[in-house]
Amino acid sequence: KVVMEKILWRRSLQLRDKQQAWQESPEGRKMLELRRSLPAYKEKDALLTAISRNQVVIISGETGCGKTTQIPQFILESEIEAVRGAVCSIICTQPRRISAMSVSERVASERGEKLGESVGYKVRLEGMKGRDTRLLFCTTGILLRRLLVDRNLKGVTHVIVDEIHERGMNEDFLLIVLKDLLPRRPELRLILMSATLDSELFSSYFGRAQIIHVPGFTYPVRTHFLEDVLEITGCRLTPYNQIDDYGQEKMWKMSKQAPRKRKSQIASVVEDALKAADFNGPGAILVFMTGWDDINSLKEKLHANPLLGDSSRVLLLACHGSMASSEQRLIFDEPEDGVRKIVLATNIAETSITINDVVFVLDCGKAKETSYDALNNTPCLLPSWISKVSAQQRRGRAGRVQPGECYHLYPRCVYDAFAEYQLPEILRTPLQSLCLQIKSLNLGSISEFLSRALQSPELLAVQNAIEYLKIIGALDENENLTVLGRYLTMLPVEPKLGKMLLVGAILNCLDPVLTIVSGLSVRDPFLTPFDKKDLAEAAKSQFSRDYSDHLALVRAYEGWKVAERDFAGYDYCWKNFLSAQSMKAIDSLRKEFFSLLRDTDLVDANTTTHNAWSYDEHLIRAVICYGLYPGICSVVHNEKSFLLKTMEDGQVLLYSNSVNAREPKIPYPWLVFNEKIKVNSVFLRDSTAVSDSMLLLFGGSFSKGTLDGHLTMLGGYLEFFMKPAIAELYLCLKGEL
Ligand code: ADP
Ligand code: MG
Questions:
Q1: CB within 8 A of 602, min separation 6: which ones?
Q2: What angle (nearest 5°) sits at the alpha carbon of residue 287, between those of residues 282 and 290?
Q3: Terminus-to-terminus CA distance in the chain, angstroms?
Q4: Confidence band, pLDDT 50/70/90 cuts, at residue 696
Q5: N or C: the chain end with fewer CB closer than 10 Å?
Q6: Would you say the C-alpha torsion 131, 136, 137, 138 has a positive or negative sign?
Q7: What is the 68 CA–ligand 1 centroid distance (Å)?
């Protein structure tokens, strides 16, 4: 022990000397000068004192004041100065991969180091971390995974949870776990950082924890709403009665008198605004879009524009969660004189990433989680209106270096109707995956645990999730994880997708299953343009032979793969009404899912290919059934066609772009589906036809309760629809025949 201590002491001294040498070097001095200009630097001593005296400290400060890049660094520097460099271990969580990566790189360079020395990062499937890494930026998910094997975070001295104002599900979850951990680890320090001022909630959650506010400064920002934009551009504004979700579209249409066909509504609105608005003086333009797909479609439009696509005058960049790190660095660079930088960003640029030279902001008013986030277990959300707080944050980005201008591309009355804050994620998303995670961390009763959240989800939502997990066989009657449940916790995807992957791996038909699971995680690759609906639906049905949207997707993807090899992927998509972006996304998701599976023991770790090219369609059908159960509906044939019924909803309908919607008859008794949506009637999205025996063997589980006279959900279903043949088979399986 004494020897060990000596080694650590020596190591700590070395670290201190190295740090001092950098700080005294000319580059180090210059960097320090730059850092000193950030508001957070002025609070350095107060922050460090507060952290040394309190177990929990909450720091709020305007975006760009230096929370993320400076505060973890202050702690690291002061630990190194105090010759504790070799024994401290600081973890700073970020809600998104891209911020963990870009911030760690920035901090390393501010310390005159390469990534992986004292500063590193770790996100899923990627990381840069060395033996001497003392400050680690990681995603919240990574820390949660670490807690799985290391409940007490042994050796960690500081945990910093960043961007808590976003109220993501993972962050809220982490806070409950950390709150439990604090009494067990009295020397551990917890620092929470928020970009908004409403820190009271967090403070009272942690027993009136100290709040430190970093005062920021922004220049005034002139604000325009859509009506002002129209006026500036000389468009006539006809009065409108009602603003719905398409308010923007309506106004633009009306102002130009003639309705126009639009591929991406938001992209078109922004394109018009970019062309029309008059950006006086130098400064970058930051455009808030909803996601990767919008950004891409706007990018294409702008490239085609003679003015905005001219690269000698415009530097067009994107900023979203799935961009490459080389792309990331570019957004911070200042363009050459006479070149206008335009950054198309998702809400990532709202508080996570600060681009310094922004003077103009265009805000489309909507946000969504990117489709790629499926990997982080976030269900795909449709774009929806942002909150007032978000709109203010977006506006604030324009006033970093000088007075700026913000164009909100929606009418003021829409803004007035925005919610003050966005609802925390834990209150608005299904909790199945979260419940599984609670179980895998051995945190006891799910509902008891969740009742201790910052804001607890509704009891009904929790019960629904638990019930669902029992039905799919991930939890047993006593809410304990089953073997299946344990496997599912290893795959950070929705349980139904995880089930398909697992059984696909076991049955050695992974290739098509990877395509299906990836396809369900991205935006629907089958496009149905409003004016070419029939053509598009006909194009889709070419891929259908077997009453399955999921298998149609597999065929479409395989065709694309072949075309792509001849560099004809785009043509193929164009001809077949497929989204090339979705196809590419599927391609990369397949790889990610495959490497996830290699982390389990179900796929041989040395396997590099998963190309079981020939596969049995019935087998895939069974795998789909295994994953999608209990999403089942019964097919009831009448003379001319068929009706669909579920137990809960009665009659349901198919979306018109489902291949099954074009079939006069379906020679199967059931459909399994992955999503149902209530509009006026209940509509099923993608569906696959399955047989009785498939449903029995790959659908619901026959728990012990069945034999005791209780029907499982599947049993109830069968009884409800009185299918004689299947009832017989069922009774036979129950051992009663
Ligand atoms: P906060 O977390 O308070 O929003 P940050 O610490 O992220 O603030 O940013 C502080 C400053 O550092 C900002 O002015 C930002 O533009 C700058 N910055 C952050 N990352 C980089 C980078 N990779 N390159 C250049 N400047 C950066
Ligand atoms: Mg930050």
A1: 487, 502, 505, 506
A2: 175
A3: 70
A4: confident
A5: N
A6: positive
A7: 7
Measure the CA–CA gap between 602 and 206, rounded to whole angstroms.
Answer: 42
Q: Which of 69, 332, 353 for a ligand 1 pocket mutation test, highest count of atoms within 8 Å of Cβ?
A: 69
Nearest CA to ligand 1 atom 10: 66
Count of alpha carbons within 13 angstroms of residue 624, beta-carbon side? 31
Per the listing, tokens 């020939």 go with 614
**Residue in the structure block whose two tokens are 């500081």:** 158
Euclidean distance between CA atoms 519 and 514, whole angstroms: 8
Pick from 482, 472, 477: nearest CA to 627: 472
d(CA 633, CA 448): 34
| DSSP annotation string for 356-406 | TTEEEEEE-SEE---GGGGGGTPPP---EE--HHHHHHHHHGGGSSS-EEE
Cβ-based neighbours of 14, under 8 Å, separated by 6 or more: none
Q: Are 501 and 513 in contact (CB under 8 A)?
A: yes
Given the DSSP bridges, would you call strands 670-673 and 632-637 parallel, antiparallel or unpaired? antiparallel
Cα of 340 from ligand 2 centre, angstroms? 25
- pTM over the 0.90 mark: no
What's the gap in Å between 92 CA and the centre of ligand 2?
A: 11
The tokens describing 435, both together, are 């419940």
Is the ipTM value over 0.85, yes or no? yes
234 pLDDT tier (thresholds 50, 70, 90): low
Instruction: Classify burial at 154, counting beta carbons within 10 Å of its beta carbon; exposed 0-12, middle 13-18, buried 19 or more.
Output: exposed
3-state secondary structure 423-445: CCHHHCCCCHHHHHHHHHCCCCC
How far, in Å, is the centroid of ligand 2 from the Cα of 103? 9
Question: Relative to the alpha carbon of 354, which ligand is closest?
Answer: 1
Residue 196 to residue 499: CA distance in whole angstroms = 39
Ligand nearest to the CA of 39: 1
User: Would the CB of 97 count as within 6 Å of ligand 1?
Assistant: no
